[in-house]
Amino acid sequence: MSELFDEEPERPAPERPGRRTRALVITGVVLIIGFFLLSAFAGIYTDRLWYAEVGFGDVFSTMLWTRVGLFLAFGALMGGIVALNMYLAFRFRPMFVMAGPDGVDRYRDAVTPIRGWLLAGVGVVVGIFAGTSAIGQWRTFLLWRNGEGWGSEDAYFKKDIGFYVFDLPWWNFVVDFVMAVAIVSLIATAVVHYLYGGIRLQVSHDRFSAAAQVQISVLLGVFVLAKSVDYFLDRYDLVTDDHRLFTGMNYTAENAMLPARNILVGVALICAVLFFLNVWRKTWQLPSVGLALLALSAVLLGMIWPAIVQNFQVKPSEADKENTYIKANIDATREAYGLSGVESERYEGTPVNDTTAPEANTVLGQLSTTPVVDPQQVRDTFQQRQQVRAYYSVASVLDVDRYTIDGQEVPLVLGVRELDQSGINSSDQNWSNLHTVYTHGEGLIAAYANRISDSEVNGRIVWAEGISGAGTSGASDLTKSEEFEQRIYFGEQSPSYSVVGKASKDASSVELGLANTDADEGDQRTTYDGKGGVSVGSTFNQLMYAIKFGEPNFLLSGRVNGNSKVLYNRTPTERVEKVAPWLTVDGDPYPAVVDGKIVWILDGYTTTDRYPNAQRESFDAMIDDSQQQDTGLQTIPTDEINYMRSAVKATVDAYDGTVTLYEWDTSDPILKTWMKVFPESVTPNTEIPAELKSHLRYPEDLFKVQRYQLARYHVTDAGEFYSANNRWEVPEDPNAQRQVFQPPYRLFSTGVDGTNDWSLTSVFVPRGKGTLASYVQVNSDANSPNFGKLRLLEMTDANTPGPGQVANQMQQEKDVVDALTPYRVQGATPPRFGNLLTLPVQGGLIYIQPVYAVRTTGASAFPILQFVIVKYGEQVGIGQNLAEALGDALDVDLGTGEPTPPPVEPGTPGEPGEPGGETPPEPSGTLDEQIAAALREADEAFKAATDAQAKNDTAEWAKQLDLAQKAVEEAVKLANERDNQ
């Protein structure tokens, strides 16, 4: 091999570059390489510290060494094989080289002095590219190494589905890699042979030397042999190919493409054998014929013949030809997306027109927990009434969850008061303030989603009692713990990083917090004392983080000392994605109060695009709606999937950042495989705390994907599916500014067993129409035996109005127009219409929509919930709350339970207490006696409400609570009169 580095004896060595120039070049290269290596090392070192701090060090080690192993193995293979072929081409070059065409001699003369370096350089460069490509396959490799059996087979090849999901992608990569090695080696070999006379294109015969012919024949043979294996594996890709009608095997694929690929396997094998035989035969005639035959077969059998079958056999009778394939696609799709157990029932959707007062009260009772507060519209109200400081903020779309307060399960609208550094004055935005002073948010804000206040001070929102910073006092079930931790260091809007910790034990605290938001006692200074965060005290760690964040203050600032920790990777989604990079994380993390602290709850999905015969669609397209944020899809190279499972429930502690992954779908093969890859990273399902489980819910993105697929795949008959005469679609949001799906809503709704289930709901309309086709809901109560059960109500009346039509009918109703006219005058801010809810009630459908108005302008303006509009049957009503609106629609006074009396002229006989009616009897007894009587009346009403609650009589419960409240108010009024005497 030494002759590779020796100079040609017949040629004098060209003059080498000067020593100084070469030294400068080498120094520059070393500095550049050193800079990149140091940056890479800092990134890896700090990542290792972070993973160890969150308790997922094994995840980091597995990913690191898998990537390193793949990089070295595939990089060495590619670089070594290419370099070896280049060396062999030079080693067996012709001893006597005739004068070549213009330029070749000059190139050969230029290359000869540095051919050793050039050989090494080419090998290293192609090795780096190959290794980098292999790094991106670490998930594929680990799934192949640890793949679990799926337990079911595909409909055509009868192979376990795990073969398609776990094995086939890896073998496809390996075969593609072999073909790439052969091609790159062939190109490099041909160039060396051409430079040194092994290939002479300018002559009419003997264009290839014997060595060149052998080497090129072998490389072409390897390439064609790998192509033969590629054709063999491509047979299995037919069950995941996309076609015009559906994804999966179709008639043309089974009857034209599959036989064609079987034939191409044989043709490619023969062609490979001919190339290998050319090592001895020394003629290109047979290999050329074989290669031409392969190319011709690929065109005729792989392209033209399938097109002929599709156009002349399938299209004339496509419904019949594709029937069995459509059925296989339907079955696979419903199974892959968890739709196989959907229960469908016919639903009238039309209530009785003449609803009596008792029936109306029954309807109102079923709606007692219906959220009339739109979590998107009231965001500004939360901001203005509960923000406290300009540098605090809440999410753009608030979350809805249910809590048990005073023994009653109620829906709440929740928002975490997070730090928003954009609210800090620009003159105060320096490194010290941004990263050591303004470090965290404060508390959770909550409002009752089903209650409306009489006061407009808070936008008619009723704040949930006892929530930190909610402007109320007293204890409740949410913050009953005296040690409730309200500081938010990890949230959706947290800064990129913060440095926390005192300079010494006696040093003063520097982090800015809120002392008491209720009393507004001003600000306080605190110090983070949680277990989260990476120690940054040592000089070496400070240097590493200075490089990582590009910030010299890690080395220069006195705020960074031996007690300091650095908090980073702080958003809940980011933390879960880093410790579980194999998960697709739901786009909507939501907060919950669990065991005296605030935690973020996230849903993690396992997905693939390799499930045989299941319909493949864009994930972003399926989950898009008027509230959609960034999805953060991570597990596959594109956003297309055809299988999805809610595999993991993840939590992130808002104070110390602790990440916990809980196994949820215990039967998912993909989850089982990843649990083998990263043992002990996922906590068993049985260890989920009871209080946490009460806040787990059905995942929103999964429901969106399911409803998207259900719009087509509610049809299970192949013939009807092909005709597409019963195709649905998710309706557009009537309040959105762009054409986008209406989001699903979380609320209490009548479930499959008649109970009032905590559910996630949506509706469908026929494709291209505005009427209502069906209503779908899924049980979202993790403690319910029916959790995850989908219920589909298909309308029997084809003219049932859909959301868009209902919104128009509501806004055009005379009473609604009259009520909203003052808000539509010139100069006023137009009213905002909230989310339009659709609910099945008493055999019919009720539509509920809140209306908000902004009475002021400027930065301090916030929407006020002015009205609620209700449509029940053909009647539309409007009122300041749900009871008034429903009563207006049904012409019933839901406060008394009696029909609304006709107007009474002053001075004419009427009902007691009304103008012209009887005068109520004067109260008797002293003021103290009247107060005692009112309190006894209130006590009796409270007892009656408790009895009604035990009997699940929501209407009576609400009525008795109202009576109790009036009695207490009367007692207070009398007490004030007594005190003023």
Distance between the termini: 116 Å
Mean pLDDT, all residues: 85
Class from secondary-structure proportions: alpha+beta
Beta-strand level of the residues, as a percent range?
15-25%
How much is the radius of gyration in Å?
36 Å
Regions with little confidence, pLDDT below 50 for 5+ residues: 1-9, 466-477, 630-637, 896-920
What kind of sheet is the major sheet?
Answer: 6 strands, mixed
Helicity range: 40-55%
Q: Tally the beta strands.
A: 33
Question: What is the count of DSSP helices, taking H or I runs of 4+ residues?
Answer: 27
Morphology call? globular
Question: What labels describe this entry?
Answer:
alpha+beta; five-stranded antiparallel beta sheet; single chain; 981 residues; six-stranded mixed beta sheet; 17% strand; disordered N terminus
Notes on the protein architecture:
- With 981 residues, this protein is α+β, with helices and mostly antiparallel strands.
- The protein is built from 27 helices and 33 strands.
- The strands form 10 sheets. Strands 1, 22, 23, 24, 25 and 26 form a 6-stranded mixed sheet that branches. Strands 15, 16, 17, 20 and 21 form a 5-stranded antiparallel sheet that branches.
- α6 packs antiparallel against α7, α7 (210-237) runs antiparallel to α8 (251-281) and α26 packs antiparallel against α27 (954-980).
- The longest helix is centred in the first third of the chain and has 36 residues, at 19-54.
